[in-house]
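Supplementary Note 3. Input sequence used for the single-chain structure prediction.
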Amino acid sequence: MSQRSIRLWCALLSLKASLLFGYGIVKLNPRYERMLLHDDAAVLGVGIYGIVSLTHASLLEPSKGETLRQVVLKKWIKGDGHHQASNEFDVMMRLSSQSPYFAEPIGIISKGDVHERSYQLVMEYGGQDLQHYVMERGGTLPIPEVMRIGYQLALALEVLASNEVCHSDLKPANLTIRDNQIKIIDWGSSRALGIAQRTMDGTPIFSSPELIEGQACSKSDMFSVGLILYFLTTGKYLPEELRGTPFPNSFSALFFMANTEDPEPSYAGCFAKTLAVFQLVPELAACKDKEIGFRSFLRSMVHPTPSFRPSHREAISFFASHLH
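The predicted structure, written as discrete structure tokens, is reproduced below.
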């Protein structure tokens, strides 16, 4: 069968799937010639902006034939779903082709008629999210495992910086893990470096001071990774001596103050001053001699001034030297 005949046959099968299951394929990763979604979706989570489900898909790759894989469906329930799905698809295509630490997009599907059409992003399933992973293991991870995760995230941050992209919402819930490999997901808050925003779309408790103030730089995600590693090691979001301040447990207050029209929100200033004291990582689990530098390196990752945070290459080198 010629290549033209194969493409025609795949197009007909996609049309059949659209008629049978009620969806149309808007975009498809060039790696695949066909995608057939199974009707067995189970909801993984529901958020403010969308619904995430897990299902199966039959995917045809010219070099491997047809395989059955678990895939994730992300459906938007607010905003322009087509625009949002397309933006995330394009960012994921670019990054996943350069590093294994970014989830691969598979396609975009649409459902409904012209009056009520919804769009869903189809992407690879990278395992359970890191938030649940660490909770199932008693709330903390051993430092050697944290080092391995830090190494993978440092490699990913270098790719982000080289593409002049800031994820802007790195947190345990936006990382997946399977077979000891991390993958970054959820690019809804990502932005190009150097573009200011009046509001922040990320999660304040894992955001750098500059992100809270609407700015993003190449080291903004480094700050978030420092907070993630702190959480994985201690099981805490913020140190206990900061729990008395009004912001750690008040997300409504966080968002209100981060989105205020005041050019210098009191929250952002308070947050930056608090971090400047370097009390963010006052204690970690007992470290072996070989790992004692982890505490001071973690402090440098969450410095309120971006230029004082380690470079991506320094982070890669540090974590690589501590791998077991």
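Confidence is low (pLDDT under 50) at residues 239-283. The longest strand covers residues 50-61.
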